[in-house]
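Final report, section 2: Outcomes. Of the targets proposed, mannan endo-1,4-beta-mannosidase is the one most frequently requested by collaborating groups, and we therefore present its record in full.
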Amino acid sequence: MAKAKPRPAAAILLLLIFLAAAAAAVGAGSDAETTGGGGGMVGVDGTRFAVAGGGGRPIYFSGFNAYWLMLVASDPARRGKVVAAFRQAADHGLNLARTWAFSDGGDTPLQAAPGVYDEAMFQVATVTTVTCKPKRDVLAGLDFVVAEARRHGIYLLLCLTNNFHDFGGKRQYVQWARDAGHRLATDDDFFNSTVVKDYYKNHVKTVLTRVNTLTGVAYKDDATILGWELMNEPRCDAEPTGALVQAWVEEMAPYVKSIDGGHLVTAGLEGFYGAGAHESKDLNPWGIYYGTNFVETHRARGVDFATIHLYPDVWLWGSAADAQLAFLRNWTRSHARDADLYLRKPLLVTEYGKFLWEGVAGANRTQRDYFLRLVLDSIYASAARGGPLVGGAFWQLLDGGMDTLRDGYEIILPEDRLAATIIGNHSRQLAQLSLNTGEDVEKEAAAIRRRRKSAHRNTRTQRGWSQW
Ligand SMILES: *[C@@H]1O[C@H](CO)[C@@H](O)[C@H](O)[C@H]1NC(C)=O
Ligand SMILES: *[C@@H]1O[C@H](CO)[C@@H](O)[C@H](O)[C@H]1NC(C)=O
Ligand SMILES: *[C@@H]1O[C@H](CO)[C@@H](O)[C@H](O)[C@H]1NC(C)=O
Ligand SMILES: *[C@@H]1O[C@H](CO)[C@@H](O)[C@H](O)[C@H]1NC(C)=O
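The predicted structure is given below as tokens.
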């Protein structure tokens, strides 16, 4: 989705927030030796994720999106919101946060210009002022987010730039190249300009090799991070059938691996089908091309798992609820089938959401909650039978009082009791599933076989008796 920029929210008691943030920072530093996330680096094992060092224990993801974490964490007055978000998420068993590890140019840049990084976004320095008035440049951005995720046992899926204009993205990179005197025709030159590709690679390298000032762990070595997403929702008008994005992913995924061989990588696709083999363009919203191939691009070397997004109401704007539900079912089924048949890789629904604006037909809470259940049930059903659809992340988690970031999709867990219960229950089910190790599954299967056999014997015996 294209997202609005956050604006500075109303201030809360500055000193209180400052103390809370300082306390959180101390807490974050104190368990730097934990292995992060859910207990170790995550790898893939066929169409499932598995925790390395966890004896290959499978892990399923009950996740959320919160693109704003780094930016809010870089603002002293609002850092408590980041802590609150992770705490609420952990309380509901959520184990994955998808968020931005980019802010290209603009008012609050992570990367102000190619290769120029605003330390305020990255670094957490010690607070030395006697006035207790926190300065923006001594507060953490991304480092704080990673440390907090680690502290709360939540994995991070970090996204490295945007297809859309929000927080820079494709357009900003192309503009930087133009400012440097290069002639680029459109924003889609992002995907094939050598200059822009070098800017992007430099950003990748800077973030991945960054050593977290709070935990002392390099990002590329931090098990809190599940993996890297090359771009949020790549699309390409210049080459609608998918060749430009294909070539770009084929170059960038191995590049990420060359710097960080330990983490997983994915492209960041929404799941739109292109013109390659095994693509089902007719299933695309409105049956048109968006510049990506779901199957072909996820087959690229260096891409470890596949992703789809799911927004039936905006994608099929104006269509009936029934048609949207049919789309939802077809979209998840079709991609799960492809992941199983053609990719043999896990699949995550890295964004899904249903518009909730009171008073708008088809957008009430009952329908939103129904949508949540449908998506979560399909994930659970797949995961439970060993299918490739093994997790998701709803769009988007906010804490209360963040009204400027509301976009109609927000879920504020403490204020949205039913949604919170649905999500919490789903997290628990998935966690239970991952406790069923290979051995447990075999034991369970053996128990089922024994029950069947004995049922069979009983049936025979009973028949026998009746024959006597
Ligand atoms: C990049 O692709 C665009 C659109 O296909 C094309 O116009 C342009 O010439 C290409 N640039 C390079 C450097 O290949
Ligand atoms: C869903 O799939 C069914 C059967 O394959 C097809 O008839 C129907 O048109 C599809 N619906 C949508 C909304 O794509
Ligand atoms: C929500 O919308 C549906 C369909 O428009 C309607 O049947 C239902 O009564 C509405 N529920 C509430 C609580 O407004
Ligand atoms: C959540 O799980 C509890 C315990 O299994 C169950 O009683 C409750 O009905 C579930 N709630 C929802 C909303 O699914």
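The chain has 14 helices and 13 strands.
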